[in-house]
Amino acid sequence: MDQSLNHAKLQPFFVFASCLLCFMLLAGGHHPAFAQSNDDLALLDRSAKAFSSMVKKAGPAVVHVGVEKETSARGLGQIPDLFNDPFFERFFGPQFRHPRSNPKQDNRTFKQQAAGSGFIIASDGYILTNNHVVADASKITVRLADKREFQAKVVGTDPQSDVALIKIDAKDLPILPLGNSDSLEVGEWVIAIGSPFELSQTVTVGVVSAKGRDRVGITDYENFIQTDAAINPGNSGGPLLNIRGEAVGINTAIFSRSGGYMGIGFAIPINMAKSIEQQLRKGGKVTRGWLGVMIQDVNEELAKSFGGKVGGALITEVSDDSPAKKSGLLQGDIIVAINGEPVADVGDLRNKIAMTPPNTDLKLRILRDGSEKDLVVAVGEQPADMASLGKKTTGAALNEFGLTLQDLTKELAEQFSYAKDQGVLISDVEADSPAAELGLQSGMLIEEVNRTRVRNLKELQQVLKKAGSAKQILLRIRSGERSQYIVLQAK
To answer: What is the pTM of this model?
Structure first.
């Protein structure tokens, strides 16, 4: 009892002694702890110097691209009409009136200036940049990191991927080595160099946020690297670098509601750009592969209906006299792999076929009637009027509304629980289009156009032809058991 009491009385002393011992140990161990901090700082210092060294090597090959474009007074329609209001003329005189209001001045031209970035890929002056930086330019001025300026000429552009190749007359220029964008991993460090807001040689650092971004709505062929390295207006055309100082992408666009950086930027993978650059340098244009099919993604419902799994690309239509037709591909087939490489979705298939040289044989793994089989197809050359072909197929008058249409076949009718010839199927809706704003989606059915019943594309086109160049169209849309009327209005 007494011993327990003595222990109880001594307990505060033991606690104090323990605390004092810990303090002494910590004090005595001050130097090892500090040494550890030095090690950490040294590691951070080495990392910082590694970034800095890499930027010093890469920077001289990054250029500022200044562009001058000419536009007419007719092209200045973005200026508000309020400037033509009599109120302003009364106070400031008729000279204040916007040129658009004076027909005699409508043919005047004005010079607009813009800027972007680029990077040198050959010592004799070849430079990669974005198509949207140099498109329609009357004058291109390239300013090097050492402040020298050169006039550049366009070797070739590819609007479908937003890649452009320009050249300056110079020799022994510093070049930026090209890396392998396929080997990039999500979370890997990347560096962007460019001229945001014309501030040349600006460096920002981030990571790869995602790969294979498509359907962003920027270009026809998208396979973007997404990064959180700060990209702003003026960065377009500049390089996205890996930690080895190799260009792994071309900075192209940002996702922004304010016009400035919001943490999401997109870069064209350098492996895609390499193929395009080689074709532009050789012939000034890009030739793409072509199958001749209309396709759509395979979601969970479609996967169940066709006896497969989510993924791949479902063929909804096969064009006559196309490579697909000649190889035996059928409507309702699902392409699941190319040469043993899985096909993720529509965007993946489109990119792989487009980047395949014409006359190349590909082995396609398809799912047909619940069973897989292999077919060999000789890829054709994409027609030059590819866009217009699509419009002819779907009816030009609805293209401007953002709708892609197709006939409702027996197979598709069963798939979507419609009756054959019940209407025209919406197979795709363009983002930010009038149709998308009204909530139209793929899988919906058009049963009437301007109060006239339509059962197929031919009937729909006949109704549209009678309507002429109408900018407003009345549609009756069915989605499952529900139907409603909507009015489409062109922007």
So the answer is: 0.66
